Amino acid sequence: MDVMGDKATLFETGRFVQPSSREDTDTPDETGEIADEAAEELRQRLAAEAGDVEAMSVLGAMLLRRGDLDGAEPHLRAATAAGDRAAANNLGVLLHQRGYADEAAGWWRIAAVAGSTAAAHALGRHHRERGDEPAAEYWLRQSAEQGHTLGAYALADLLEHRGDAGAEHWMRAAAERGHREAAYRLARALDRKAAREADDDGAPVPDEAEQWYRQAAARGHRRAALHLGTILEKRGRLKEAGRWYLTSAKDGEARAACALGFLLRDAGDTENAAVWWLRAAQDGDGNAANALGALHAERGETQTAERWYRAAMDAGDVNGAYNLGLLCVEQGRTPHAEQWYRRAAYAGHQEAANALAILLLRAGDETGAEPWFSKAAEAGSVDAAFNLGILHAGRGEEQAALRWYERAAAAGHTEAALQVGMARLRDGDDQEAERHLRCAAGGGSAEAAYRLATVLDARRPPEPAHELGEPVHRRSECEEWYERAASQGHRRAQVRVGMHAAARGDVVEAARWYREAAEAGSRNGAFNLGLLLAREGSEPEAAVWWTRAADAGHGRAALRLALVYARRGELAEGQRWADRAVSLGPASVAERAARLRDALRQELSA
User: Fold this and answer.
1) Which in 291, 423, 537, 579 has the greatest CB count within 10 A?
2) Which long-range contacts (CB under 8 A, 24 or more apart) does 505-513 make?
3) Where are the alpha helices (DSSP H) in 131-179?
4) Judging by beta carbons within 10 Å of its beta carbon (0-12, 13-18, 19+), is residue 275 exposed, middle or buried?
């Protein structure tokens, strides 16, 4: 049982005393304090021997605090017999320390009835320890209502345990009187309440909660300092967050040491980050052990990394097993990777389940992979939901694939949104297709940006005519999406951007995009670049690009080459390219190429 009352006073005597716990020193100031305390004790002892009841009570309390139970008991009993309520309370404390809880409760009852708030608090705690909650609430309420801080906190704790709405009132009362644990718990309660109301664990922390965290942290509460650091870090106030993490970490909070490590790593100070991660990991923080493992893995120190991943796993952090699996995959140790992935997956690690499924799928075990994909997807893995879509699509189960793609897309998976958009395009639902394509394009998919551009392009009305009959080219949204895809290396988008530039008369820009597409392997880009060069009078260079396009299967390019060689008088080469154009098509090209080929054949046989 903790002694009652403010630390600055000795129980309920109201007399200020020096702390009894100290280290031996030779400093003059402390020597003086010891002398003053000894003089005070002597003065009280003389007064007590002379029959002063208050002195008996004070002397007994001084001896009790010092741990001299045998010396304190007779003085406290004598003062109690004389009706001193503070002595009755402290006699209860002494008997409780000796193990006589029921006798202690009897004296606390006497003191509480006489108006001792500390005794009422102690009696309330006694009844709670015995499981008598109604009696506990009665005495704790008596203490709390008379302004006893510990009584208010103990009452709040009891009510909170029962789910009573009145708990917050008393927790607030204790916090307002400086109780640091009450301030912390009040902040936590306000924090959780705000999250419930917002239906979001990431909801902003209310200002009042932050104030109570700050008050508790300022009074040395290490978990409050950790939470305060977290709040400030989310707000981008990193220096202040770091100070509170440091305060908490120095007080022994492993999670704060770990968080401080991540803050330092993000600032580029990996050496000091490792120091704090090591401290946290040695105190059993699995997250810090994982961070150390990742740090050593990045340095190529795989054995050390594995040791820390195992330490994380031993600390109960399932990420340790998952990271061991990743490490084994990088080393080509597939059987070991499967073992660790399974261990993490069976413990509920969704990404490990997805990774295990991928491993099994690559090994040809589709039957074994599918349940793990499903388990991971049901647990919330977006990648697993997308992978299930791929699995079903590979079997031709388009509807099942679409359901999983939609689920992944709803969670923000870019490629899944693209697949849904393309499926809606095939169904003719342009509106839904556009919605999903916009999501995918916004997420960085070049293919989605291109597809979205084609949808918008198809809807675009004809260009308004200039008053002199020339079209007026205005930059449209579809061009912006084509350009976004083109800048990401999408070859068909690059060709479209070139076409739009050519339509505006910007030959240099058009040639740049055509060339970029052609050099990346686009036969349309090569063909269009050839057309552009031919119009500019560079037919020899145009022929080079048409040759590249024709070799890649472009029929019109082959026909253009046949015409070039026919004009040059190289009839056999012209006939060869005409034959190639006939075989490549399309039909209109094949028809023209056949006529040209026959004419060249007649010319050669003449």
Assistant:
1) 291
2) 507/532, 507/536, 513/486
3) 133-145, 149-161, 167-176
4) middle
| Contacts for 351 with CB less than 8 Å, ≥ 6 apart | 322, 376, 381, 383
Q: Which amino acid is at 196?
A: R
Give the model's pLDDT for residue 462. 61
Q: φ and ψ at 465, to 5 degrees?
A: -80, 145
pLDDT digits (tens, 9 = 90+) for 138-150: 999 999 999 999 9
User: What's this model's pTM, rounded to 2 decimal places?
Assistant: 0.71
Within 10 A of 491 (CB to CB), how many other CB atoms are there? 22
9 DSSP assignment: B
Residues 270 and 255: their CA atoms lie apart, in Å, by 17
Q: Which two tokens stand for residue 492?
A: 């068909």
What three-state secondary structure class fits 465?
strand
Say which amino acid occupies 386.
F
- For residue 479, how many other CB atoms are within 10 A of its CB? 21
Give me the pLDDT at residue 601, please.
Answer: 86
Task: Read off the amino acid at residue 101.
Answer: A
Q: Which single residue is written with the structure tokens 């939901």? A: 385
Query: Who's near 307: CB < 8 A, 6+ residues apart?
Result: 293
DSSP annotation of 5: S
C-alpha distances (whole Å) from 563 to each of 369, 537, 556 are: 56, 16, 11
Residues 311, 248: Cα–Cα separation, whole Å: 23
> What pLDDT, in 10s, does the model give residues 298-325?
999 999 999 999 999 999 999 999 999 9
Please enumerate in sequence order all residues whose Cβ is within 8 A of that of 393, keeping only pairs 6 or more positions apart, or say none. Answer: 401, 419
Of 56, 50, 51, residue with least CA distance to 73: 56
Q: What are phi and psi of 24, to 5 degrees?
A: -70, 125
Phi and psi of 54, rounded to 5°? -65, -40
| Distant-in-sequence contacts of 355-361, Cβ < 8 A, 24+ apart | 355/322, 355/325, 355/326, 355/329, 356/325, 357/384, 357/387, 358/387, 359/329, 359/334, 361/391
List, for the chain, all residue ranges whose pLDDT scores fall below the cut of 70: 1-33, 199-203, 461-475, 606
What pLDDT score was predicted for residue 11? Answer: 39
Residue 470 per-residue DSSP state: P
Q: What DSSP state is assigned to residue 130?
A: T
23 CB-near residues (< 8 Å, 6+ apart)? none
